[in-house]
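Colleagues,

For the teaching module next term, I've prepared a clean inverse folding example: a structure given as C-alpha cells, and then the sequence designed for it. I'd like students to try predicting residues themselves before seeing the answer, so please don't circulate the second half yet.
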C-alpha cells in the first residue's frame, strides 16, 4: 500500500505515511486465474484503505480465514468474495467479480476432458481405455482429492494443537 488510510490528499501526521500491520504474503496459487482473482482482491482491499482486521469484521470471518483467502492458500468461496467486494464498496462491478471467481473455480476443477482422450476412448480396447483414463482423467481427480486432503489435514492439525495446548495448560495449573 502506498498511501495513508487516514487521509487521501495530504500525508497524515499520525502515521507519517506508514501503514501499520504486516505486509501481505506472497501469493501461492495453483492456477493463473486464481492468482488474478487474488491479486485483484488485494488491489481492491488496498484501494479501500481498511485494515485486515476491519475487513474481517465487516465480512464476518476470522482474520486467519481472510488471510488465507488473500494469500491464495485456498480459493475464497463466492460468499466470501462477494462480502469482500461489498465491504470495499465495489458493488457496481459485482458481475465482473463473479466472472473472475467462476474462472478461478473452473481453472481449479476442469470439467472438459481433452478431445484426444475422447477420440481414444471410442476406438480402443479395455486396457487402452484404462491407460487413457489414468493418463488424462486421474491427474484431475488426484489434484481435486489432494486439495481436499490437505485442507482436512490442516484442520486436524489445528484441532490436535489446540487440544494439546489446553491439556498442557490444565496440567500446569494443577501443580
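(Answer key — instructors only)
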Amino acid at each position: 500500500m502506498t498511501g495513508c488510510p487516514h487521509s487521501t490528499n495530504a500525508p497524515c501526521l499520525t502515521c507519517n505515511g506508514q501503514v501499520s500491520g504486516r505486509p501481505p504474503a506472497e501469493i501461492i496459487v495453483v492456477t493463473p486465474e486464481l492468482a488474478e482473482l487474488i491479486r485483484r482482491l488485494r488491489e481492491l482491499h488496498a484501494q479501500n484503505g481498511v485494515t485486515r482486521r476491519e475487513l474481517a469484521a465487516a465480512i464476518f470471518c476470522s482474520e486467519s480465514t481472510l488471510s488465507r483467502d488473500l494469500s491464495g492458500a485456498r480459493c475464497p468461496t463466492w460468499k466470501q468474495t462477494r462480502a469482500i467486494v461489498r465491504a470495499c464498496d465495489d458493488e457496481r462491478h459485482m458481475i465482473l467479480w463473479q466472472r473472475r471467481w467462476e474462472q478461478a473455480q473452473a481453472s481449479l476443477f476442469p470439467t472438459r476432458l481433452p478431445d484426444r482422450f475422447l477420440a481414444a476412448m471410442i476406438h480402443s480396447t479395455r486396457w487402452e481405455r484404462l491407460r487413457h483414463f489414468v493418463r488424462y482423467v486421474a491427474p484431475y481427480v488426484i489434484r481435486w482429492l489432494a486439495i481436499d486432503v490437505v485442507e482436512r489435514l490442516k484442520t486436524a492439525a489445528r484441532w490436535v494443537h489446540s487440544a494439546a495446548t489446553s491439556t498442557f495448560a490444565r496440567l500446569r495449573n494443577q501443580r
